[in-house]
Amino acid sequence: MSHGRRQKPKNLLMILMLSPYLLLLFFFGVLPLIMAIFNVPTKSPSNPNGGWHVIKIVLHDFRLVPAAWHVLGFMALFVPLMIFFVVAMSLMLDTDTAPWKKWVRLAYIVPACISGSVAVLLWYVLLEPTLSPFKGVMHFFGITQASQIWKTSNLTYILVFMAFLSLAGQWILIQFGSLQSISGEILEAARVDGCTQFQLATKIKLPLIRKYVIYMGVLVFAGGLQIFVEPQLLNSSVYHGIAQQWSFDQLSYSLAFDNGNFGEASALSLMLLVPSLIGALLVIFKTDMFEDVNFKSPKKLAKEAKKREAAAA
Amino acid sequence: MLVVATAALLGASLVTPVATQAAIPSITIWVDSPRLPGAQLYAQIMKGKVNVNVQLHAQGDLVAKVQLFNTVKKGWPDVVFGPPNDVAFLKNPLVNDALQLDALQSPAIWKAFGNGNNWCKLNGHYYCVKNDLAQTVLWYNKTLMTQFGYKVPTTMAEFAAIGADVAKNHPGYSLGSLGDQAGYSSFLEPSQCPLNVAKSDTVVVINSKDSHCTRVATLLQPLIDSGVIDVRSPFDAGYIKDVGQAGKWLMNIGPSWWGQFVLRPASSYNVPAGQVATANMPTWPGESKAYSGEYGGGIYTVSPHSKYPKEALAFAMFMVGDARNLVSVKNPDGSHGAPTYPAYGPGNKIWVQAVAKDAYYAQSIVPALDTQAQLIWGGTKPVRYDANGAWGASWDTEIKQSKDLQKAIDAYATYTSNAATQVGYAVVKK
């Protein structure tokens, strides 16, 4: 960046590289966002004169608090479970002794082929005591009726189960990939110094893939907050009403397309944007997630220089 | 936000332009798959007179899409088949997608509906055409009733007495179930329990403590406790296996389509041929009329944006009144005719002739269906909230958990009171 002469072509290249993303961001991120903002104060059955107090109406919706509890409960289980399990499994997969590593990796990716919508049907059959191939086991534990399993109060656990099993596999492979990027020299050095396999995993490898783990955490968090397909399908085609406006996104969808209330739906959607946006900003500015080792902005360099000076003085 | 916005974009791009031809009127119609053969037949018949563009859509698609059409100001189909509650939503001036139909055809035709189109009559005007009636009747297993020595009950007290005797002498046999909308259409609605009684577009009566509700709880609770009446959904895989497939179905109060779609199919209750019969609804104590509930029954709505509303309405009338749809049209499963009890009097007369001859039933099921068709309780009205989804969201959870009927009625009332308030209704007790 210091050579003014080279700056122009570099910028052009940067714009070129960014443009596909920027286009998508504009059409499917920024534009809908602007549309949503304009939609909030429009007239609707619950807000016949229009206006911004629709936000207050949404906050008082009797389904909002239950939806919040459902989604928060889901995330409180789902996010830590994913992170812990995925990290543990990928670290175990990376111990280079396993001769059938290739097959184990394949085994992890298979459940990921069963995506959300298919998983709903699969788990309905598996957990329905009349149809399940495991009905013998269920009957042994006294579960003979669908209502003992399929009820709204159990839904959090069932959905965590569903989402975990369909997502964990691919994340294990991604994290396994990030472990592959660790330099062999470092690992060799650690071994020479007498590091056990366990220490190698927890003291050397884990800190080195920390960024990828945080990254996974962010994506899993965002995905969890937006849970929609599984409860919606369960509610509309398996047990009608079991997950009626169970999650935030379902409530937003229902406000828009059942009640025809785009103002409230937009207001709720914008509210949902806030925690995700705060999370993203925190990750960008308060962690070194996006810090480039080889590049620091001039401002940052000056800041660090000042710090050093102050320390020296 | 993403859900709403991408759906908005998708919706806008999927709008099919209506074919424009100067001389011939053209209409776009939306039907679900059971109505598709009839609609396609209509398009064929009208060739050269009206261009009919038939599109297959799930029931209820319109309510989801009409907002988008309103936003982009185009795309509205001319006539749509949908679930009964839609008319309340579509009639709302803010949505404005249900045309007042009174003047589009002669008063004699409206009159011929009898009480069949009462659902669509709001504030004295017609806003939709009822396709079929789903009036409840008493469905019973004639063979088992004779074998056990029971008389077909004509009052609810007799119904309960049989229930008590079944529990004692024939345990395992069932008098029906309460899950989903079955509890409402079979018992609460015939008893006139005010749970969705819309008095106007903005006032609805919801009162679970009304004596018409509490008497249902009092009468049925012992039958629930003894298991004669099940708290599961009639479509629950476990109930189908334990009762239907096990030959333990004795009787239940169910809608007009019960025999064909629930009792008969081998994958469902699989009741053998020659056993099923219908009877009039049992009366509740102190009532002179034996009201029916209603479980389903679709409607046709015409859009005010239609350029050819008369042609649009003519399609709906073909579906409910023309023998070519009611009895002749070939369905993909090999059967013929419309699947459910037509709401339109003259059309109905054609349809029942074929059903009366159906050898599956022990005797003609038609007399009871006809009697009850004129006795659907008029208290339940279309409302602008999902009154049907609320059964699963509140009632089912409560009844399965506590097996306490009054608590379940209360839970439903609480839920719908909230839902009604949310969309701008005032909820009153009377």
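Chain B touches chain A through 47 residues (CB under 8 Å).
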